[in-house]
Amino acid sequence: LPFRSKAVYNSRQSLKEIIWEVLKRVFEFRDSFRLKEIIRSGEYDYIFLNSLTLYPLISNNNKYILYIREKFLGDKKLFKKVLKSVKQANKVIFIDKAITEPFNGEPLDYLILNNPFDMTKVNDLSTDEIFREYDIPKDGKIVISLIGLIAPDKGTDFVINAFNKAQCEYLILLIVGKGNNDYGKSCNNKVQQNIY
Fold first, then answer.
1. Mean pLDDT over each residue of the chain, to the nearest integer
2. Crossing angle of helices 182-190/156-166, nearest 10°?
3. What is the CB neighbour count within 10 angstroms for residue 13?
4. Rounded Cα–Cα distance for residues 71 and 82 (Å)
């Protein structure tokens, strides 16, 4: 995700993987400056940010609409930092009620545009059952999930290609969604190691 405050390295990473992570951080850092410069140089009625990970871009200099699609799972220190930026947004849109939970009781101007996928059910899922059902090895790997419709405008093929190119042995990509069409079959054909 963009604007990570620190990278996570572990002893299972190869030198190639560590270098890849460092390079990604350099490009993310460069891209964040580009975005800030674009925002600074333009005159906008509103700026729409479609992810909570973009919170560092919010300032009092412009009007922002923040669309939060992901559940905040960070620690209290990071939450204070995120909340300070989120409070500066002119409007906050949550994808569903479950995503609002960390922000309950905070004075935010927000609305909920319900997503057809009920995020409240995510907490009820048993990862052990999912791992068993899909024969996913449970050997300390980090699981990244892509949940939603498998369609060209969602970029599923882009995520699969990037995951294949990264070749990080300690990661698993779990894709959950409907894609019973040619695009879904095309995505399935691109699947390599550690993608389920």
1. 80
2. 0
3. 16
4. 12
* Chain position carrying tokens 């070749």: 167
- The first and second tokens of residue 45, run together, are 């009625």
The rounded Cα 189 to chain-centroid distance in angstroms is: 24
Whole-angstrom distance, CA of residue 13 vs CA of residue 3: 21
The end-to-end CA distance of the chain, in Å, is 21
Element at 187 (helix H, strand E) = helix 182-190
> CA-CA-CA-CA torsion for 123, 166, 194, 184, nearest 10 degrees?
80
Tens of pLDDT along 64-74?
Answer: 999 998 888 88
pLDDT tens for residues 157-167? 888 888 888 87
CA distance 97 to 107: 16
Q: Which two tokens stand for residue 103?
A: 């922000």
CB atoms near residue 127 (< 10 Å): 11
Residue 112 φ then ψ, to 5°: -115, 120
54: buried, middle or exposed (CB in 10 Å: 19+, 13-18, 0-12)? buried
Residue 41: phi and psi, rounded to 5, are -85, -15
Q: What SS3 class is residue 77?
A: helix
Residue in 90, 87, 97, 92 with CA at minimum distance from that of residue 68: 92
Enter the pTM of the model: 0.55
